[in-house]
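WARN no homologs supplied; continuing
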Amino acid sequence: MSTVTPALDQLDPAKRVRTEVWMVSVDPGRDDAVSLQTYVEFFDPEFRGVTGTVEATDQASTQYGVFHELEPTAAEGADDYLVDHTASLFGVGPDGTLRVVWSPTVTAEELGADLRELL
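OK structure emitted
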């Protein structure tokens, strides 16, 4: 997430207003909408954090090829657990079509260049 704001800063205003950044939780049991929004606003106040039911999260994960798995203690009702998950950035078009997947190691310069091309 820390590379996204610098990448967006590289866009001209007409392209920047056409972008939205959403962080989708893969742990709706622990991430409520308020805490998630507070977290993403740390990176940029225009970013949005979203969560949903376990079923909706699983459906979206399948649709976009996102891996996520709670460590075994989570199933026992423990409150302190880890979640393994895909750390990639996903570029999704206005119609919900996956356009591009960026590696977690993408730089702000690379991301900005791709966004300029996509937009």
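The radius of gyration is 15 Å.
OK
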